[in-house]
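Q: what does this look like with erythose-4-phosphate bound?
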Amino acid sequence: MKFFIDTANLDHIREAHELGILDGVTTNPSLMAKEGITGQANIENHYKKICEIVEGDVSAEVNATDFAGMVKEGTHLSSLAENIVVKVPMTKDGVKAIRHFTDNGIPTNCTLVFSSAQAILAAKAGATYVSPFIGRIDDSNWDGMLLIKEMAEIYAIQGFETQILAASIRNSRHIVEAAKNGADVCTCPLSAILGMLKHPLTDLGLEQFLADYRKGNS
Ligand code: E4P
C-alpha cells in the first residue's frame, strides 16, 4: 500500500518525506486555505513547492465545476510539474472531465466519493485514483471501511485498474483497516502517520533495555 500525506503544510510534508515512507501528497481547497494559501498564483506556486519536495504523485484540485472550466484548469495544473495529478470531484461534469484527461494522458484523482456506484463511474472514466472519504462516512453513522471493502471486491472482479485511495483518514487504526480491506493508497494527516509509531510496550521495552545497558556499562 502506498502512503500519501493529506496536507498543504510544507513542514508536515518534509517531516513525512524524511521518514522515507512517503509516496505522494493530496491537497484540497480547504487544506490550502488552512495554510493561508489564497489566490490562484499563490496556490499554483505552492503546488510547485510541494512537487519539489516529493517525487511521487501530488493531487491538485480543480475549483471549476463545469466541464470546460475543469478541463482548462486541470490542463494548466498538470503543466505545473510532472508529478501533478488532477483532482476532480465526482459530478456529471467531473466524470466527463476525467474521461477527457484520461484520453489525453493526464492522471486524475476522483474525489468526494461516498458510494460504490460512484466508484464504478470513476473507474469507467479511467481515473488513476478514486478517493472514498472514510472519516466523513464514519461521521455520518455508517462504516467507511465497508465501502473500501466493497470497492476493492468490485474492482478485482471487474479488473478495473483505478487505484483505491482511502481518504479522510483520522487515525492510525483507519490506516490498518484500509490496508486490510484492500486500499491501494492511504492519504493521512501527519498525526495519523506518526500515530502508527506508537505502542506503550515499545516505550517500556526501550526504557528497560537502556536501563540495563547503563547498569552494565557504568
Ligand atoms: C482527500 O484527498 C481529502 O483531501 C481529505 O482526505 C478530506 O479529509 P477530511 O474529511 O479530513 O477533510
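Residues 2-190 form a domain with the TIM Barrel fold (CATH 3.20.20.70). Residues 6, 26, 28, 111, 131, 133, 135-136, 167-168, 187 surround erythose-4-phosphate (CB under 6 Å).
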